[in-house]
User: Fold this.
Amino acid sequence: MADSLLTELARIVGADHVLTDAGSRASYETDWTGRFSGQARCVVRPADTTGVSRVVAASAAAGACLVPQGGNTGLVGASVPRAGEVVLSLTRLDGLEPVDTAAAQVTAGAGVTLAALHAHAEAAGLSYGVDFAARDSATVGGSVATNAGGLHVVRYGDTRAQVLGVEAVLADGRVVRRLGGLPKDSTGYDLPGLLTGSEGTLAVVTRARLRLRPLPRHRVVALLGVGSTHAALDVLAAVRGLPSLSAVEWFHDDGLRLVRQHSGLPAPLPAEHPTYVLVECEGQEPVTETLAGALDGLAAVGDVAVAEDRRERAALWAYRERHTEAVAAESAASGGGPLHKLDVAVPLAALGDFEAAVRRRCADAGAQVVLFGHLAEGNVHVNVLGGNDDLDHALLLEVAERGGTISAEHGVGVAKAAWLPLVRDATDRAAMLAIKRSLDPRGLLNPGVLFAG
Assistant:
C-alpha cells in the first residue's frame, strides 16, 4: 500500500530528499555510541525553514511523530528514531548570513557545523564561544537543542549564553521568529532561552542568532602533570581569577595511555603522572607571563609543557580531545558491548570523592572506567567499558547524592529519561511536562526524549 505521507513529503522536498530504503536510512538510525537505534519511517531533508514548516505540518496532519536530527553526534539517543518516526534531518539548513561586526552577531542555519561557524566568524575578526571535539560534524541546531557546553564555558558560558534569538517551527508547522538579536528585550517570555536545551521536544529550531566575541590575538596552552584530582583543583584555584582564562581540562594516566595507544602520539611530558590538567589562556595582549605567574611555585605541579604556536597548541590539545575516539576504539577492540557514556557534573568540593566512588563502583562491577572532562565546571565524562544499565544507575545515584546533575551538556535524551527523578522532583517535572503539552499537545516531537514512557 502506498504511504500517502511519503508522497506528500516527496512533493514538498523532492523525492531525492526522502530516504526510504534501509541502506540510505542506516546512518540516520543509530547514534554515535551505537547503543540507541531504531527504524525510521523515512528520513526527510528539507532545505530551508519553509520546507521544515511544511514537513512538520504534513507530518502533524498524518499523526506522524518526528525526530529532529543535526549531525547525529549525540550520545544519549535523542536524535535517532525508536519505532517508525520520521527523521527530520536539518543538515541542508546550512546558510550563514554575513557577520554583523558592529553588533558582534551572526545568524546561522541549524545545519551549519561548528567548524564552519568558527571559520565564518574568524574571517570577520571575531570568534564563537562554544567549541568541542566534534566540531566538524556537530551542528548549530544540535548544540542549541542540547545547550552544549564544551571547552570554553569557564570563559564564555554554554550555548544558552550565546543564543540571542531563534527561529523555530512549532509542532503544528507554524513558525516562531525571534531573530532580532536585541541585547535588551523584556517583552514577554524568553522563548529562545526555553527552546535552548529542550532537545527537540518543544519545537524544531531552524536558525539561531548568535553572540560573537573579539578574536583573541594571543593564546597559550599549558599541560601540567599533577598527583591527583585534589592537586588538579589546586591548579584550578590558582588560575581561576585570571581574566584571560579560557579553558581548564582534566584527564588521567589511564585515559592518556589509551590516547597514545590508539593514536601513536608521543608522551607529552618527561615523566608519567596520575592526573593531567590542560590550561588555556587567551587575550588581546600577551598572556604567557600572566599564566606562568599564576602557576609559579605551585607545589601541586610536577612537569609542565607550554605552547604558544598554533601547531604546538593543537598538539597539546590532542591529548585531551582524542580521549573520546580512543575510548571508542578501545571499546570496539574489547568486544565488550556498547560503550556506556555518562555526562555529569558535581560540585567541585565533591569531585575527588565522586571520582573515588566511581572507580570503586566500576571495579566492583568488573568494568573499566575512563574519566575526563571540563574541570572548571566539575563536568565529568564517565566512560564505562563493560558497563550496564544497573551500573549506570548506581553511578548516577552517586551524582545525585552529591547535589550534581545527570546531564551537564549532552542532554537527557532517551538514555537518562528514566533517571530524571533523581535530580528533578515531581513538581519540577510536572511543570516541564505542562510546557511540553502546551507546545506539543499530541506528543509528536521527539517522543520518549527527556520524559520516559
